[in-house]
Amino acid sequence: MTTPSDGSVDSSSDLLDHGSDTAPTLANLSTQMAELARRLRSESRDTETILRAISAAAVESIPHAEYASITLVEGSSSITSPVLIGDLAAESDRLQAELQEGPCVTSALQADTIVIDDMLDDDRWPRFSNAAAELGIRSMLCFCLYVEGNNFGALNLHSTRPHAFDDESQSIGSLFAAHAAIAFSSVREKEQIRSALTNRDIIGQAKGMLMERYSLNADDAFQLLARLSQDSNTKLADVAAQVVQAGPGE
């Protein structure tokens, strides 16, 4: 597996050596995964970058994974896949979004690990399993990546071989998903802080413009913004941005 073109994460082969004669201990694996999570955090700037880095590192780190994707379930019906590693992963997620069923969706919504040993023998999602098998996907391994209110995410691994994901794959994958979730949460928190600071600045600018335009004090200017937000059912920061974009006016 090659490193993503955006350079968001290096190959993790230096962290996990599956070809060695001595299997890594659980303690060593945990240490290695923590180091990988630290690298993911430090090298990722936003949600798209961290999700791409997690997907690429998963294929590198988890035994027998050939393809990877991250499925996001937002609200009750919106299913998207912002990051895909490999064509089969893309087709798998497209099928689940179209059919509104499948292991990735279930893993995300139920915060559970899902294993499909052989698509030809799995009857939990018959429409998806039949279509996926026709594409050449024979086994899958899905982990819940995060839960935020009504939004959920799952990390999905695919193989063209049946019974590809053994106990080692599941153990390493579980550790990887746990540390990846921490890395993702850290990047999301940084994004939210940046967004909050940006919104505060925009609201401050809009307040200043309203104070000057209508000879209002700071409290009255903010109340005007809040009323416009409520009346238009628009976020306060978006209303403020519209005021700033409109300019001083007359």
Automatic annotation (TrEMBL):
InterPro entries: ANTAR, CheY-like_superfamily, GAF, GAF-like_dom_sf, GAF_ANTAR, WH-like_DNA-bd_sf
One Pfam family it belongs to: GAF_2
The keyword Kinase is annotated on this UniProt entry: yes
SUPFAM superfamilies: CheY-like (SSF52172), GAF domain-like (SSF55781)
Residue ranges constituting the ANTAR domain according to the UniProt record: 183-244
Assigned keywords, A-Z: Kinase, Transcription, Transcription regulation, Transferase
Keyword Oxidoreductase recorded: no
Renumbered residue ranges of the record's region Disordered: 1-24
Ranges annotated as biased composition (Low complexity): 1-14
Protein name: GAF domain-containing protein
Source species of the chain: Williamsia serinedens
Upper classification of the organism: Bacteria, Bacillati, Actinomycetota, Actinomycetes, Mycobacteriales
